[in-house]
Amino acid sequence: WILFESGFSLLVMESVLSEYTAVETAFSSFINTLTHIQDVAQHKWTQFKRQRSKLEFNMAQHTKSTTGSKKISLDVGGTTFNTTAETLLKQEDSFFWGMLRSGNWEPDKDSGQYFIDRSPHMFGVILDYLRD
């Protein structure tokens, strides 16, 4: 009986050892996969930071060209209003702030005015608000 028990125990131990080896192999593979994912993520993060820096640089360059005392002429529903980029950029997250900072709003090639398709009736009040 003792021989049978130790033989049985030896078989059980070999089986458990085999299972431990399989788990160790799987865990090692998992760690290698995580290391690879970390490397890829680090590379993507570096690319993201580089792209963000380029975008910030381009925005800064655009801001330099659309801020300060640069005179801006607006055609609001057929009426001309003159102001500065500084005035239009006073309210962050406003229509003007978004349009001027986006770089997508360009003045008309012929008149040099920025066109706004709205009634000019209350626009002077809005402009005075931004000036104060």
Order of strands side by side in the largest beta sheet?
Answer: 2-1-3
* Envelope shape: rod-shaped
Distance linking N and C termini: 101 Å
Q: Give the biggest sheet.
A: 3 strands, mixed
Class from secondary-structure proportions: mainly alpha
**Beta-sheet strand percentage?**
5-15%
Number of strands: 3
The SSE order reads HEEHHEH
**What is the rounded Rg?**
34 Å
Overall residue-averaged pLDDT value: 84
List the total number of helices. 4
Describe the protein's architecture and organization.
- The protein is mostly helical.
- The chain has four helices and three strands, in the order αββααβα.
- The protein has a three-stranded mixed β-sheet.
- The model has no long low-confidence stretch (mean pLDDT 84).
Summarize this structure briefly.
This protein has helices at about 1-65, 85-90, 95-100, 125-130, and strands at about 70-75, 80-85, 115.
Keywords:
132 residues, mainly alpha, 3-stranded mixed beta sheet, 4 helices, 65% helix, 11% strand, rod-shaped
